[in-house]
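Entry for the shared binder. Reason: the reviewer on the internal report wants the predicted structure included alongside the sequence.
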Amino acid sequence: MSLTESLTEAVGATGLTAANATAASLGQALERGAITAAELAGFYLDRIQRLNPALNAVITVSSDVAAEAAASDARRAAGAGRGPLEGIPVLLKDNVSAAGLPATAGSPALLGADAADAFLVTGLRAAGAVILGKANLSEWANFRSRPSSSGLSTLGGQAVNPHGSGRSPSGSSSGSAVAVAAGLAPVAVGTETDGSIVSPAAACGVVGIKPTVGLVSRSGIVPISAAQDTAGPMTSTVADAAALLTAMAGADPADQATQAAAAHATSYAAFLDPAGLDGARVGVWRAGSAQAGAGTVAVLDAALAVLRGQGAVVVDPVELTGADQLGEPEFAALTHEFKHDLNAYLSGLGGDHPADLAGLIAFNTRNAASVLAHFGQELFEAAQATSGDLGAPDYLEARSAANQIARDALDTALATHRLDAVIALTGHPAWLIDHVLGDYHGWGTSGPAAVAGYPAITVPAGRVGGLPVGLSFMGPAWSEPRLIELAYAYELARQR
């Protein structure tokens, strides 16, 4: 059975198929008794068993799925459902820890790490979610080697974009995006430092929300940079992303950056307004996709027509001044932060694993035949060569410069043109997987929001040669409610 054929597979007696089953529609089916949580979990486990060997989207499934689903059914029967995700299977990127499922980051070095629920997983369980298993990713969230291949890990193999033969899934949350696009899970969790949620979501034709840094706790997640890291939802619809974000967001005493989240986390379903674009002001950052081909530019122009048709005021173009200068200071800051934050994470992590970044480099060298079979560990070595001291003048200068460029670029555009959001194509269509030269990443627009710590949402906008292209909505810190309004209204209008 081809993937296209498999997406027409019926989800029990729900009247839904693997292609159109959402968390919302599955929740309604569970509520009316058309399917049980046990049957639903079994449906997705069966699809993973049959389809994952060709996709490599999932590293492992949880041995507790059946018990969790049965417990969900018992709660529902007793009228004690936990929340809007009751009985909904959720796949976690495998740098997020869960009970019984260590966060491996795709590396055998962390197979022996202790496994406890990350703070966000606690939130998902409190909303009734069933943890299905772990999604594949670019090993170490794509911060091990340069070059590299997105979606390639020692434990998970090479994740493959379901929309094109041999095409990259992009980004490091690749398995999460592939799994949702291929109907191996209705919803998934990804993480981003710069582009790792929005890029694979766009390339695989799904929705991704990169929240404001600090809205979602990083406790229990393998880090790159506390200044930029965040987890976020990856789903087939904006409504599902809003539901998942609601369950994940909130203040965590163990993550200082989330203290402000107590004043901002909310029920994001309240902002699913079909008229959300009426009167909105959006600015088009065309320079971010200046290298796009004609077919890809046509996707942007079609999106702008939809926005205007829904009553939005489109300011075209707007400039994000200095955005092209982000790369150097961002990289310098990230290498320092990676060494500091990863060493701190490993020092507090129980179980059997290397003690620090130096130990990981040695582990990879000892196991080079498998771990370094395709690419090296140049980024590990660059990070190890730094002091890892977040008080060092060279680090402080780099982080300050990166933050100032990114925030000034977005803040100035938003204020000058009185915008609700800056919009841009998320990235170009998926390239061919190459284990010799690595990723072809010509351009992407994730940088300003990622470095600033601001939110971004990508929504499917069209296709070029059968390959998906996404449209990103970017706004100031804590503007998730408004961005969800805009993205939801755009999603609905485009489907009409």
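Summary line for the report: The radius of gyration is 21 Å.
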